[in-house]
Amino acid sequence: MLRLRATATARQHWHGERDQATGPTRTCPSLEHSPLTEFWSLKSDRSMARVEETGGDREENKEEETSWWSPEAVEGGRVGEGPSRGSRGGRGGDGGRPDTPPPPPYSDQVLENVLENVLQFLVCRRDRNAASLVCRSWYRAEAQTRRELSVGNCYAVSPARVVRRFRCARALVLKGRPRFADFNLFPLGWGARFSPWLAAMATAYPWLERVCLKRMTVSDSDLAFLARSFPSFRDLTLICCDGFGTAGLAVIAVLCRNLRILDLIENDVEDEEEEVIDWISRFPETTTSLESLSFECVNCPVNFSALEALVARSPSLRRLRVNQNVSLGQLRRLMARAPHLTHLGTGSFRPGIAEDLNVADLEQAFVSSKSLICLSGFREVAPEHLPAILPVCANLVSLNLSYAVITAEQLKPVILKCNNLRTFWVLDTVGDEGLLAVAKACKNLHELRVFPFEATEDSEGSVSDVGLVAISNGCRKLQSILFFCQRMTNSAVVAMSKNCQDLVVFRLCIMGRHRPDHITREPMDEGFGAIVMNCKKLTRLAVSGLLTDKVFKYIATHGKSIRTLSVAFAGDSDLSLKYVLEGCHSLQKLEIRDSPFGDVGLLSGIHHYYNMRFLWMSSCMLTLSGCKEVAQKMPNLVVEVIGDRPKDLDSDTVEKLYLYRSLEGPRDDVPLFVNIL
Amino acid sequence: MASGLMLEETELRLGLPGGGAGELAEVAVIRSSGKRGFLETIDLKLKLQTPAESKESESTEQGNKATDPHEKPPAPKEQAVGWPPVRSFRKNILNVQQQSESKNKEEQSDKAAAAAAAAFVKVSMDGAPYLRKVDLKTYKSYQELSTALQKMFSSFATSGNYGSEQGVSVRDFMNGAGKVTALVINGSEYVTTYEDKDGDWMLVGDVPWEMFVDSCKRLRVMKGSEVVGLAPTAMEKRKNRG
């Protein structure tokens, strides 16, 4: 049960403000802050009340209040935080204000208008969150002027609540399932449907222009409804979503006359074979306003002449990423139609049957595309064709070769010319030698991802600690790395921690489970320890290999800025989880699998779970009673136990736990295999 | 270490595929493609095969499960679900490349490339509120498919019946057309049927496995009592066509 308490200082503040008769000058109120800042609600007597959990540790909250309220926090300057302590699952908290209160006195109204005009320049979400907490009129003004809504967990807040608070949104960013859903750890049909959000927005935001969804389920009828509901609709971005097919895309093409962006990225686009629709030909015959069209994940045949015609009548098109059913010859024709492209997804990069292309012709196409800065695709590239991109290499900022099965020798001539590269994705088939070439050539590299060609535990693996060290020596500005390998050493990771001090994201995946340092045979504790010690800007970390409780002690002690932590097959005991939950003050997303953590570890996070977006634990050692205890102690937490069979939900062991803070309580679309405690 | 049964097959090499390439690639497909490889899940509590049919799959499972608990680090042969954390489309696409490369050496055919791709089909069960999808390429036989379906749908069949252990089993029964493999869930018989390329609904189990994988578009698990009136079996179809 929730208890509403008007704290003494809050009441004083409000009465003080209302008694004030004159003048625009007012002192900034001292704000009552608790970790639950999104739970602000207005009681009927119009004093700000703080919602707190029963039996919560108020002492701790008080401490945080006083230490939090500082000038830098207001400016949103603190690393990874605003007063809302980092990214939130939605900006709700409007629960106690059912009707619009009567208009404030005249001076307040003027000030609010001024405020609105000023606040509209605030774009950053965290700045806006900060502004909304200053006082009631700032809250209102901010709510009126927020144009882009960002909801990190679609179940943390309801569409109705969002729509009630923010009246003038033009754009929505919405995320559903957590990342582990990408790896078959979430059963199909778990949830995160777009429909309820769409229904609410159709009435509330008729001028909606942009929607970006990540890991949501979007149906064809959703897409149709979207296309019909928003006449100004311009930008649709779907990332890792599912539930739709070419039928939905066809309606978007037909009805969204102002479409500028249609980006379909890594979605699971399903079609019955008989039902594949030629959606490309459904775009209107007139000149389009398309700026970006990405459909690499839509794996069905493409009506090429329709595509070519579409590109020809889209003068604003700058980003085009086609699927692997576009051949090299067809790509060349597209490039001729769109010489001003900046981003190109090249499709198969293989000549079609009966296409006779020589590299010289192809190279000419790239010579003419002087604006290209980003290349991807290469889904079936024949290595001998790769050098055709040489003319643009010097200008490339981003290159994605992560589907290109090429060797180091085949990579070298290309990469050695890519001196301005900031982002590089590649397959491990290029080996340590290929990485050496990258290190030599790409001094400005900020992001590197090395994917495994054979994504199994016992594959050979062609990259190792050698490659990692080479990269760390050559690419000193590295900020983000994702590295899959089979062999690694602590000293290589330590070297990277010292050479690349700008690291913000460090994700190392040693594919063999529990694999130690392959030279010393020791656990990988020291390597990851060095990363958290030396890389002060680190906000995202994924660990792997043989790891003991020690590494988690390091992470807890030094990883104060870490917001996302991924753990798999690691740790010895509950201590690990305890360390992390007690030490990582910025932690927002914690995903754990197959690690020996039980109820004791779980319960040690009770003071922190309201600060987090979610916790995922699967194949650990949790029991139902432990999870129930968490659910009882934290009423604003939704604790989901997920099983493959309903029978599992009755047993005492919990196979999958997903918990997240929410203003709405248990969701109403729970499938049979989920039990909300 | 695990029994010698699976060692050669798990030795996946990176070099250009040689003679045994097709086999290796096939193993790779079975291991790492597919959205829901139930056989890959570690929890194999369900032992529901009849003794005769279970011999083949049991030996496979034993090979997979022969883990020496004292060994450190442990190296179980079976892959954990969702590990390494690479998205399935990435695994699928690479397998397509592998196979198309190796097939290029032997027979140049588009059919090979198409066959290499994963074969996802929707599976519906009467009375179950959700559809599931399976990748037929991850199974080598009807038995494996059966096992997977049992696991998937026992959750629905046993809902409301948690206490009882009636469970799921596979039984053969004689149908007018011959032997048919039927899923028996909680005492009532469910029969697995599939829709083929022609749009006809056929009983699962008549044709050789590979032919079935190629022609199956959709699966449906229906109550045995509703099986009357299905299209003639594939055998009869072929006979009729002459």
Automatic annotation (TrEMBL), chain A:
Identify the InterPro entries for this entry.
COI1_F-box, LRR_dom_sf, Transp_inhibit
The Transport inhibitor response domain, residue ranges: 169-213
The answer, when asked if Cytoplasm is one of the entry's keywords, is no
Q: Name one GO biological process term.
A: SCF-dependent proteasomal ubiquitin-dependent protein catabolic process
Its annotated pathway reads: Protein modification; protein ubiquitination
Where do the COI1 F-box domain residues begin and end?
108-147
Where, subcellularly, is it found? Nucleus
> What are the annotated GO cellular component locations?
nucleus; SCF ubiquitin ligase complex
Q: Where do transmembrane segments lie in this chain? A: none
Lineage top rank: taxon:
Eukaryota
Compositional bias per record (Basic and acidic residues), positions renumbered to this chain: 43-65
Report the PANTHER family cross-referenced here: F-BOX/TPR REPEAT PROTEIN POF3 (PTHR16134), TRANSPORT INHIBITOR RESPONSE 1-LIKE PROTEIN (PTHR16134:SF36)
Q: How does it assemble?
A: Part of a SCF (SKP1-cullin-F-box) protein ligase complex. May interact with auxin and auxin-responsive proteins.
The protein, known as: Transport inhibitor response 1-like protein
